[in-house]
Amino acid sequence: MALAQEFPPQSTEDDFWIGANKLMAHGNWSWADGTSLDFTDWKRGEPQNITGSDCVALSIGEGYWSANDCFKNKSYVCAVPITTPVPTLPPFTNCSEGYTYFQPTHSCYGTVFGRKTNFTTAEKYCESVGAQLPSIHSYEEDHFLRG
Question: Residues 6 or more apart from 116 whose CB is under 8 A from it?
């Protein structure tokens, strides 16, 4: 199940914050957890070199990333890495309510609806619940998030 499918049917959401930004890496794109962008799925023509467009949103409809003004209010996803060993049988299902487990990353992902906020506030909220904005390192993870 793709995480984007969890947006309410009446939702007008079209994109949400992920953890990529160039706020701390001297103008270079990196993930909020400090890792480099070893996988990208930029929309054609992105990232544009526009002042203030230093944070990345993933488009549900188009399925691509775009650089955005970090002060725009958007929904967001929080990711919680699972640090305990994951049993192979039965399938792991111990994510907190509202989170969905994705086996390839051993992480639980939860979308935050109705609380659109800027990038920094989204990042702080995720941290307050023991999570982080997601760092996407593969096509499979990207596809899981966008649907």
Answer: 73, 74, 75
How distant is the alpha carbon of residue 16 from its chain centre? 7
CA distance 118 to 145: 19
Q: Is the pTM of this model over 0.90?
A: no
Alpha-carbon distance of 86 to 108, in angstroms, equals: 12
At 43-102, the pLDDT tens digits run 999 998 888 899 999 998 788 999 999 999 999 999 998 765 545 545 555 788 889 999
Contact partners, residue 84, CB within 8 Å, separation at least 6? none
Both tokens assigned to 113: 């609806």
Residue 47: asked if its preceding bond is cis (omega within 30°), the reply is yes
